[in-house]
Amino acid sequence: MSKDRRSFLKKIAAGTVGTALGSPFLHASEARIEELQVLNRTFSANDKIRLAGIGMGIQGFSNMDEAVKVPGVELVAVCDLYDGHFAACKERYGNHLFTTRDYREILSRDDIDAVCIATPDHWHDHISMAALEAGKAVYCEKPMVHHLDEGHAVIAAQKKSGKPLQVGSQRVSSIITWKARELMQQGVIGPVNMIEATTDRHSALGAWQYSIPTDASPETLDWDRFLGDAPKHAFDPVRFFRWRNYQDYGTGMAGDLYVHLFSALHTVLDSHGPERIFATGGLRYWKDGRDVPDVQLSVLDYPQSKSHAAFNMQLRCNFVDGSESGSILRIIGSEGAIDLGWNSVTVIPHPMAKQPGYGGWDTYETFTAAQKKEYEAWYQSQYPLKEMQIKEPEKIEYKAPQGYDAHLDHWANFAMSIRTGKPVFEDATFGLRAAGPSLAANVSYFGNKIVKWDPEAMKIL
């Protein structure tokens, strides 16, 4: 047992001595709740950052809402392919905004310092690399790339440019995620052996059946520019506004939702990723023309590394989840579990008994009276009674302060990097290590095969 773990257990549980031969632990009462402090959130307004948004759909607006809360960040331009979004941007952010359908007009402006790329996935790598080459800092939504073979080029472009690239999985900057990382480094649940993670939904909007504006037409949106290098297709506003449902433009459940789980987990465990991936599932309910599953399950093997033991991970996304289980990320160790939520992290200590015990559903009950007596004498010589029973430690829940916003912290981290040159939390290499297993899960699903992944080289073997 590590020194940190001993210290942790002393703080949350008092040992008691008993003589019962049943359960080796007494259950503690209710969980204790502690509110985390927001640390290192210093927003300096020094050096104004002039920002442009490229792709102003749902996530584009969400990002701009957060970005402009960071002191010194000024939104000056937006690029989108639907005219209605220009009017909405000016309503929300001001009539001063420069608007264009061509992102290259944004990149050619010397007065723009950074861009936020929240386009469909198939545009991520193209615009990211062009922006870096143009000397812009880049905030790119997850997944960083649409296809696995695009990732290394983005990494190379970031290194060559010397500019920051932050991938938009905001849990990486969350005080909740970093508290979980601290707890794992203290060894409070022992070596990890299993991860259980779900992102389940039970609504049309949750299944990406987003609202389509009534004026959507070839005149109000730029269909050909939207397609880019995707296969040619007749004008279809459904594919434009619900692009996540189509492999030509999006990455399905794995690329959109698994990637959040990988990003958080890799931060907590300081992990580079799995080595084997298998995915299954199907299209069970939302048969609306989409070509991605609405139920997807994956099993992954993580190898031992310097920072963690070997473990297995099971992932699930279900868009027809009648049980309404929601999102879960549970890290299971030999001495307990950690439940990582968006706004809280809970430690559930459950130390492994040091003595096996006897009786109950056990061969001891098949012994003769003489054998039982002899066995009891042997057992007592091996396991002193004073070690027989301790009080099971209580749960501790660490909660973010009310109103805490990890998304804002992620933007603050990006702004800090622009101003100071310090690394962002989620650079292109980290982004590929999260996107890689996600996209490899799609390779497994559509290819009906086990995928071997190299977490160091970040490629399929």
Mean pLDDT comes to 91
Largest sheet: 11 strands, mixed
Q: Which class best fits the helix and strand makeup? A: alpha/beta
The CATH class of the largest domain, by name, is Alpha Beta
Can you tell me the CATH architecture of the largest domain? 2-Layer Sandwich
Looking at this structure, what is the CATH superfamily of the largest domain? Dihydrodipicolinate Reductase, domain 2
Kindly report the CATH topology of the largest domain.
Dihydrodipicolinate Reductase, domain 2
- Overall morphology: elongated
Q: What portion of the residues fall into strands of 2 or more residues?
A: 15-25%
Fraction of residues in H or I helices? 25-40%
Round the Cα radius of gyration to an integer and report it: 26 Å
Number of strand elements: 19
How many domains, in number, for the residues?
Answer: 2
Low-confidence stretches: 8-29
With strands numbered from the N-terminus, the spatial order across the biggest sheet is 2-17-15-14-13-9-12-11-10-18-19
Q: What oligomeric assembly is this protein in?
A: single chain
- Structure annotation, total helices: 13
Distance between the termini: 37 Å
